[in-house]
Queue: 4 jobs
Job 1
Amino acid sequence: MTAILRFAPSPTGFIHIGNLRTALFNWLYAKSRGGEFVLRFDDTDQERSTRAFADQIEADLAWIGIKPDRVIRQSDRVARYDEAAERLKSLGLLYPCYETPEELDRKRKRLAARGLPPVYVREALRLSQEEKIALEAEGRKPHWRFLLPNHDGDPTITKRTEVHWDDLVRGPQTVDLASLSDPVLIRADGSYLYTLPSIVDDGEVGVTDIIRGDDHVTNTGVQIPIFEALGLSAPRFGHHNLITTIGGEGLSKRTGSLSIKALQDEGYEPMAVASLATLVGLSGSIVAVRELDTLATRVDLGEVSVSASKFDPAELDRLNEEIVHGLAYADVADRLAELDIPDREREAFWLAVRANCGKVREATFWRDVVYGDLVSGDEPDEDDKAFIDIARERLPEGPVDENTWKAWTSDLKKQTGRKGRSLFMPLRLALTGLGHGPELAALLPLIGRERIVARLGG
């Protein structure tokens, strides 16, 4: 059987690194098995869903390297959900309820005050047809609940009814349906909550495996009976742990917490983000993985932690730095083309400065150091001034190339007796204005003779 997996975001905001974790687990699982990855937009909430957010989600996934085999929009499939709803109604498994949100909240509070679980006790099933007509005459519109199979024929008397599955991440799982309220599938305004459309789509698309956050474990216990009621095969499920901020707060599309768009705008490399999103909370070290195919070999769902994992910005910085230091010129040529660097020198410039860049955009700083006007720092002392004068006079004749620095400093060592820091640091400060940076052997040809002489006071 071909593995078919899906990522099903609601386009109500920017996806964050936690959403990306789910997308990556599904994409890597599918591709490592020669399967299919479906991007499905759960956009039945027309008030909050927008095409702009959907387009951004596709762009975010493409930036990471995730390209779906199919894209589905639930807003195009409402007729299919209507058919499923009518089927459940005809089976007596979808029933109307007339309580307002305020009334339901009061009932939950009363149950809690009595030490009872806040479970809906199916009062709506006791309503006569006349009572329903009277409620609708008052202007009330029903919401619709799925009748869970947790009884022996009389739904007002529930019994322990266990739903079992072998979770791809957490192992054997059990949910007791008697401990849960019948889920609302249709709102009073006639719109669908995600549950029914999701099940219809998963069944009709033939989704074989669903990997999602562990906040859906209980939902799975509810959804399996709905699959069965509709005559659909339930997929295998896996529930991974969630990612929180370093302070332990949950992530949200609405607030834009750690959104993929923001991370891209901040200059992070896609594989640094993908590496952290995937490997945090797995056994083994978090390393910078440069290809998605390689990342797939690191993922064993059975090794995912059951506790939440914290997103550490310092960890992302470390991974990004490691990736940037290994980027070939071809990887960054387009980005460097935007900088004011002579065409013939761009590759040499990148190879010279990349080890000092945490992000590619930091090459702009080194461009200014190499080609710009230096900002004067502290004045050197008299001894260093004299040494700089000698250095200017002893600069080797001919083209400045990769051999110039070694020849120059070797000569200065003989002429002045200086060595180590006392030899190199005055030159670095004079030539770059900084006490640290790329190897001067690589920078000298880029700075060029004219600027070298000028910076040495000539």
Job 2
Amino acid sequence: MTALDKAFDVLESLAEHERVTDIATATGLPKSTVHRILRALVDRGFARSDGNGGYLPGPRIFTLAGKVTHRFDPARQAGPALARLRDTTGHTVHFALRTGDEAVYIEKLMGLRPYQMTSRIGMTIDLHSTAIGKAILADQTDDEVTAFCERSGLPRRTPNTRTTPVALLADLAQVRVRGYAVDDEENEAGIVCVGAAVHDHAGRLIGGISVSTLRHEVSTSDAYAFGPTVVAAAREASQSLGAP
């Protein structure tokens, strides 16, 4: 390990531990090394003494976190994962964040096919009839979903839309088992999507990503075959946002 590696390990451990002994145990470093690094962190404002022999995160950590958060762009952070998903499948990729009882597209990567989806960045989508939306709802309890159904009314978008709480809950139960959701012409006739949830640095669900294509290009079994790839991309996107 380099000196920089050791310093980073101590700094990360400081988020969970206060005592030198505990930090040494967590990092596997000698207590003398931990002491030396902590003194340097204190000098730079990244740590501070608690007055009782322990150490706490210093003010510069919060200042730095505030600056980073201000510049933080989820779409940009997840960009490499989205691009790989588009290049792997060849189809259009969307990234949407939940906002209340809807989700809004914050990124769209056009597929490698000679046609364009009508979706656009800034467009809001329903949760009950889209792959991203159902991936989001699957993270909630049945009671929370039932309350959502009452608020939204589950409007019918196509003949395939789940318009009753029973039908939607049955679908979400399968989403939880598979790890991904499928929109089989439920939001727009002729369009099939596969989506998975994305989480933030605290493990909270914030939205989802999806692959979208035309029905005549994929069979139902082909659409489901995209599932594991979409899940892997969603996990990569989540990790790029700091998710554990």
Job 3
Amino acid sequence: MTVAFAVAAPDGIPEVAAGDDLVALVCAALRAVDFGAGPSPLEDGDVVVLTSKVVSKAEGRSVAAGDREQAITDETVRVVASREHPGGVTRIVENRLGLVMAAAGVDASNTPDGTVLLLPVDPDASARRLRAGLAATLGVQVGVIISDTAGRPWRNGLTDIAIGAAGVEVLDDLRGQLDSYGRRLDSTVAAVADEIAAAAELVKGKSSGRPLAVVRGLGRYVTAHDGPGARVLVRTSAEDMFRQGSAEAYAQGWKDAADGAAPSGPPVPQA
């Protein structure tokens, strides 16, 4: 048996402005390409992946900001790490959505001078609205993922992740199942929504002007209900082994020692 899926990213999404109807824009772009043989450009089980930037623009999340750094500060809940470099300072922070990413997700690219773009207020709600609109317009049951770009500990390079989702099994929990040798899986939980977001980015691209992709062939992950959304992908503070950057954790350890305080953070397991 051969297992496969297909990803397509159509042209045709114009510059998005506050108040634009994303459902109408998505449907128009998909109808302009030959991605389906039926009367609808989407099929049951498809996953629609939309870049968060166009969602933010449609939702009016562009704000005046002469200083991007201040906008980052305003969106920051907690600083994880900051590093100076010849071009300035990079800040890795936790934002109000619980996402840990560079610059709190504040985007100054492809926006008018003097403005920056913030992430959607509630990306999961944005995904649910888009899914409901596509179902009402096209009569199909699809999944929707709102994606954004992020880095990863221990790995160079960026990839797209899901920051909003509806109608998609965002985590595939394999714990309790057996591997091919009959051994029990005790910790394997696949981040399906992130994997789909990353696959979609391979055809959308960062500078191609294609913020939309359709993934076909993964209907087994599309659900009848909206589901919990991408929020469940965010690791809680108690489980986060990278809650501080290395330099920050080192400095905190010295401070705790100087103050005679108990070490900050969870206990370190002994070998």
Job 4
Amino acid sequence: MTPAPRVALLGATGFVGSAVLRELAARPVRIRAVSRRPARIPDGARADVEVRAADLTEPGEMAAAVADADVVVLATLYSAATSTWRIEDGDSSAERVNVGLARDLVDALAARGAGPLPKVVFTGAASQVGPTDKEVLDGTEEDRPAGEYDRQKLAAERLLLDASARGVLRGTSLRLPTVFGYGPGSTARDRGIVSAMTRRALAGDPITMWHDGSVRRDLLYVEDLARAVVAGVDHTDALAGRHWLLGTGEGRPLGPVFQQVAVLVSDRTGKPPVPVVSVEPPAHAEAGDFASVTIDASAFRAATGWAPTTPFPEALRRTVAHLADEAERERRAPGGRP
């Protein structure tokens, strides 16, 4: 019998990677879940899951992680303690992860020699395009990244797509919008804006915005994102050689989104909704923080058949419920606040 395909999932305990692991684990495949700390095998997994704890920045670890893999999903991400994406110019540790691991992956796959080309799916970011006058992005924009994070993600993407063009691998990049939320079996912390403001509301603090609330974001629920990444795995041959944008096609004003969060938290706690207020932006704010973004993902949808299926109110409700449960557990833990 032909063995089931082996998928090396790099970054398997991260916010995106752990959701992809749950989605892949429902399939009859072999998964090598690679991360610094051991990944948790999802409940009811059909897949044969090998858990590998490794620091991929160490010599030889990348080659071992992707040995005999038919598919590689590169979902690793360097982040500072306070943010999922902001990094300082010249941060060599960030470059080593965000760019260096892509370089190591290309080198490891190039060393294989003859045989079927491995498929590689990279999780990029819609923000890689940089500042633009377009409010609706469709993937045809010229990339002019402004921040260090976006420059590093673009550099990694180009390494992989160049390797695809040279016949080292069959690679594609999926550029993610603002991803948020929790679903059944969630194991990784979401430090994005929606969950951050939900945590503030649960603590009884005002929800704060660096603008008047009219700034729009294309908010993609994490479970829908995981299905998109797996659709990318299924259709890598059709997607290879270029980047594709993911999104819902709807830019939601953040003010009303945060008002919904305040009401959902109030329903859960029985307390009045916390206020949603505008505050002065901090010194580290960037131009992109004040730009509205909507994603036209019609090209990816046409190529794969994927579409987001979770209604936004339900995704928001699940997110608030999960974080409220988390806060309750913390209060009940020894030493927790009353």
